[in-house]
Specification:
383 residues, binds 4'-deoxy-4'-aminopyridoxal-5'-phosphate, Aspartate Aminotransferase, domain 2, 40% helix, alpha/beta
């Protein structure tokens, strides 16, 4: 049987971005609230460290699992944040969180029909990767009043003989919500491996977030430098895996990637091992934007049931304006000059919603809100 790569769906957010860019080429002003990418530059000490590593000749293959210094730094960072006791032996460095997810799923999906449990709405790559590997995404329809996060009772009922893992993402893309500690703990105790995508860890604006590592040994943590450290283009991430699962992952890494990029890993060590003052500053700015939107969005009829306390997204209900989020997002783009992502990009449960990213300046966000308000007045959408 062939791989399920014909089932891979387009990333609609990229369609929105590309249309927005073509309007911009015609001189039309667009406010970008669609992209899930930090608008900040990479902090200077990290950039300097990457340059120094290049100049020092760090231009060769490394250990396929990543340089020992970075694996040790990841373990120390994780132990410092979560009070865990992992070692560098459990860490594998990857070229971003995306390959980390693909590798972990590759080792878990060993036969067609293997089920991975995940919530709907979801980050689009999750089911795409699962299908690509001939697995079956086992969706759970999450509830808006739970911030679209998985609840342990629903997960327990979905576990069957083909279940190989539960996939969690907190803080979440597209919702920005954080899973309560007790729910994460209960999900980690269901006896099934938990894949925890922790890429938005550190970007929380309230209570501290928790790692699956605090609650079980039976977990694969995925993380990366793209979001917290504003390093999307560097392509650097990692897996923290149970010791006995490392060898299998290492073999895949050796074959597929040989090794992660050498000098980039040295920049990663600097990011994790130093006080980087810009991180706090970026977090403060995201939070100021978040609080601005918390005030502004309900006023124009775009509300969330649960306050998003992490990442840089709001996932707002918009079904009262148009139940077809794809049509709505493109209409807003054409008529109001605001680029936002239709909820349908994140699965059937995302329909009737829009994802608004606040990875843009407060000025641009305020301009976007003014344009949206005008658009909604004209189409009679405000309640
Ligand atoms: N997981 C989630 C939930 C994401 O939002 C993203 C980036 N949009 C990724 C993984 C992948 O990030 P990267 O490959 O840049 O580390």
């Amino acid at each position: 049987m062939g791989r399920g790569n014909n089932d891979i769906k387009p990333f609609i957010v990229m369609d929105v971005l590309e249309r927005a860019q073509s309007l911009e080429r015609r001189g039309i002003s667009i406010v970008h609230l669609e992209i899930g990418e930090p608008d900040f530059p990479t902090p200077k000490c990290i950039v300097d460290s990457g340059i120094a590593a290049l100049n020092a000749g760090k231009t060769h293959y490394t250990d396929s699992r990543g340089i020992l210094e970075l694996r040790t730094a990841v373990a120390a960072y994780s132990n410092g944040r979560y009070g865990t006791t992992i070692t560098g032996e459990q860490v594998l460095v990857t070229m971003g969180t995306s390959p980390a997810l693909l590798l972990v799923l590759s080792t878990l999906i060993d036969e067609a029909g293997t089920e991975i449990i995940l919530g709907n709405p979801y980050y689009p790559c999750y089911p795409n990767f699962i299908r690509y590997l001939n697995g079956t995404p086992r969706f759970i329809d999450t509830r808006e009043e739970d911030g679209f996060q998985l609840k342990p009772g629903d997960v327990e009922r979905a576990i069957g003989p083909r279940t190989k893992a539960i996939l969690v993402n907190s803080p979440s893309n597209p919702t920005g919500t954080v899973m309560p500690r007790k729910d994460l703990e209960a999900i980690c105790n269901l006896g099934v491996p938990v894949i925890s995508d922790e890429i938005y860890h550190g970007l929380v604006y309230g209570e501290k977030e928790h790692s699956s590592l605090e609650f079980t040994r039976n977990t694969f943590v995925l993380n990366g430098f793209s979001k917290l450290f504003a390093m999307t283009g560097w392509r650097l991430g990692y897996i923290i895996a149970p010791k006995e699962r490392v060898r299998r992952l290492q073999i895949l890494l050796q074959n597929i990637f040989i090794s992660p990029t050498a000098f980039v890993q040295h920049a990663g060590v600097t990011a994790l091992s130093n006080e980087v003052p810009e991180i706090d500053e970026m977090r403060k700015q995201y939070d100021a934007r978040r609080r601005y939107l918390l005030d502004a969005l309900p006023g124009i009829g775009l509300a969330t049931a649960v306050e998003p306390k992490g990442a840089f997204y709001f996932f707002v209900g918009a079904g009262h304006i148009n139940g077809n989020s794809y049509e709505l997002a493109f209409d807003i783009l054409e008529k109001a000059g605001v680029a936002i992502t239709p909820g349908i990009d994140f699965g059937s449960r995302g329909e009737g919603h829009l994802r608004i990213s606040y990875a843009n300046s407060l000025e641009q966000i305020a301009e976007g809100m003014r344009r949206l308000e005008r658009y909604l007045e004209n189409c009679g959408g405000t309640p």
